[in-house]
Design a protein that fits this description.
There is one protein chain. By secondary structure, the protein is of the alpha/beta class. It folds into 2 domains: 11-17 and 265-364, Aspartate Aminotransferase, domain 1 (Alpha-Beta Complex), CATH 3.90.1150; 22-263, Aspartate Aminotransferase, domain 2, CATH 3.40.640.10. The protein is built from 12 helices and 14 strands. The strands form 4 sheets. Strands 2-10-9-8-5-3-4 form a 7-stranded mixed beta sheet, sandwiched between helices. A 3-stranded antiparallel beta sheet has the order 11-14-13, covered by helices on one side. Helix 4 links the parallel strand 3 and strand 4 (108-113). The protein is globular. 46% of the residues are buried. Bound molecules: pyridoxal-5'-phosphate. Pyridoxal-5'-phosphate (PLP) is lined by residues 15-16, 67-69, 94, 141, 145, 171, 173-174, 194.
C-alpha cells in the first residue's frame, strides 16, 4: 500500500473527539486574552447564556476545565456525603464508571446492571426505588457510547419524581447538542456534557447543568473537594467568572460553536442528527450488517463486525484507503462491533462518504 499524502483530510466518525468546524479553529487561533478582563467576562457571559439555550434551561450551567469524567466527579463530590445511597445504571463502559467512581468517594452504590446494548425502563427504576426509598439520586447515561444505546431519560425522570425525592443525574456527554434533551421540562437535577462530542470543540471542557434543587442540596455535602467545588464555581459564575484560570482558548472556540448551534437552532439540530442516524442505520442494514444495540441512539451507531473481515484489517483499510476513522468496540466487544459516531459537525455528504467506504471495505472490492 502506498503512503498517503500527509495533507489527507481526516474523516473522524469517532465518539470523541469529533470534527472541529473552521469557524471554531479560527477563533482558537486568535491571540490569547486575559481572563480577569471585561473582554473575557463579555465572552463568558454570552457562552453561559448560550449554554442555557443548549441545555434548554434557565438554571445555571457550570463550565470546568476538565474532560467529561471530571464533570461527573464534580456531581458525586458536591451532591452527596459519605454513606449516601444512590442508584446507578450500568449498561456499558460509562455506566460501569458511574458505579466505581462514587464508590471511591464512599457512597453506597446500588448498581442496576444490564447487558450491553440493553437499557433501563421506567418500570425497572420504579421497582429499584420501591426497594430503596432512601436513595438520594438515580444516575443514568443518556447515550451509552460503548454500545450506542439510548436511555429514555424523560420517562424515567417522571417516574423518579412521582415516587421519590431522589435527584435525577444524567451523563449527557455523548448526547447533549445532538439528541433531544430538555433539562427544565424533563425536571433533571444534574446533567453533564463535555466539549469534544456534540459541541465540536477540542477536549478539555466539562459542563454541568444544575437544578435549583441540586444547588440547594450542594450546601450539605460532606465529601472533601477543592478544585471541583461547585459552590465556589457557582459563586464566580454569577459574575461570569471562574474560581481558577479557565481554559480561555477552548472557551473562545466554544463561543464560536455555540453561535453555530444557535444559528442552526437546537431543535433542527436534533432533527438533523436523527436524520443522519437513520441514514447510517439504513445504510449498514442495506449492506447486510446487523445493529448491535436494542435501543440505537442518534449520536453513535454500533454495528456487529461483518464475519468476512477481521476487525484490525477493517479499521486499517478504512484509515489507509479513505482516511476514515470509526471506533472499535470496548470491553469484551472490542473486536466484535464497530462504532460510527455521527454527533457534532457532520453533514449528509459525510455520511455518504462513510457508507460508501464501508461498502467497499466489506465487499472486499479494495485490497
Ligand atoms: C466520552 C464520554 C464520557 C467522558 O469521557 P471523557 O473522556 O472524560 O471526556 C462520559 N460519558 C459518555 C457517555 C461518553 O461518551
Amino acid at each position: 500500500m502506498t503512503e498517503e499524502p500527509k495533507q489527507e483530510k481526516i474523516h473522524l466518525f469517532t465518539p470523541g473527539p469529533t470534527p472541529i468546524p473552521e469557524q471554531v479553529l479560527r477563533r482558537m487561533a486568535e491571540p490569547i486574552i486575559h481572563h480577569r478582563s471585561e473582554e473575557f467576562h463579555t465572552i463568558f457571559k454570552r457562552v453561559n447564556t448560550n449554554l442555557q439555550y443548549l441545555f434548554r434551561t434557565t438554571q445555571p450551567v457550570i463550565t470546568l476545565a476538565s474532560s467529561g469524567t471530571g464533570g461527573m466527579e464534580a456531581t458525586f463530590v458536591n451532591l452527596f456525603s459519605p454513606g449516601d445511597k444512590i442508584i446507578s445504571v450500568n449498561n456499558g463502559k460509562f455506566g460501569e464508571r458511574w458505579v466505581s467512581m462514587p464508590k471511591a468517594f464512599g457512597l453506597n452504590v446500588i448498581e442496576l446492571r444490564y447487558e450491553w446494548g440493553d437499557a433501563p425502563t421506567p418500570e425497572d427504576i420504579s421497582k429499584a426505588l420501591q426497594k430503596h426509598p432512601d436513595a438520594k439520586a438515580v444516575y443514568l447515561v443518556h447515550c451509552e457510547t460503548s454500545t450506542g444505546t439510548y436511555t429514555d431519560v424523560h420517562s424515567i425522570s417522571k417516574v423518579v419524581h412521582s415516587q421519590s425525592s431522589a435527584l435525577v443525574c444524567v451523563d449527557g456527554v455523548c448526547s447533549v447538542g445532538g439528541m433531544e434533551l430538555r433539562f427544565d421540562d424533563w425536571e433533571l437535577d444534574a446533567c453533564v456534557t463535555s466539549s469534544q462530542k456534540g459541541l465540536m470543540v477540542p477536549p478539555g471542557l466539562a459542563f454541568i447543568a444544575l437544578s435549583n434543587r441540586a444547588v440547594d442540596v450542594m450546601k450539605y455535602s460532606k465529601i472533601p473537594k477543592y478544585y471541583f467545588d461547585l459552590n465556589k464555581a457557582l459563586e464566580s459564575y454569577q459574575k461570569n467568572d471562574t474560581p481558577w484560570t479557565p481554559a480561555i482558548t477552548l472557551i473562545q472556540g466554544l463561543d464560536a460553536s455555540l453561535e453555530m448551534i444557535k444559528d442552526e437552532g437546537i431543535e433542527s439540530r436534533w432533527h438533523n442528527h436523527t436524520m443522519r442516524a437513520r441514514e447510517v442505520r439504513n445504510g449498514v442494514t442495506l449492506l447486510g450488517m446487523k445493529l448491535f444495540s436494542r435501543y440505537p441512539s442518534d449520536a453513535v451507531t454500533t454495528v456487529m463486525m461483518p464475519v468476512n473481515i477481521e476487525s484490525k484489517r477493517f479499521h486499517e483499510l478504512l484509515r489507509k484507503k479513505y482516511s476514515i476513522y470509526f471506533a472499535k468496540g470496548q470491553g469484551e466487544f472490542v473486536d466484535k462491533i464497530f462504532r460510527v459516531a455521527h454527533i457534532g459537525y457532520h453533514d449528509k455528504r459525510d455520511i455518504t462518504i462513510a457508507l460508501e467506504a464501508l461498502k467497499k471495505v466489506v465487499t472486499e472490492s479494495v485490497t
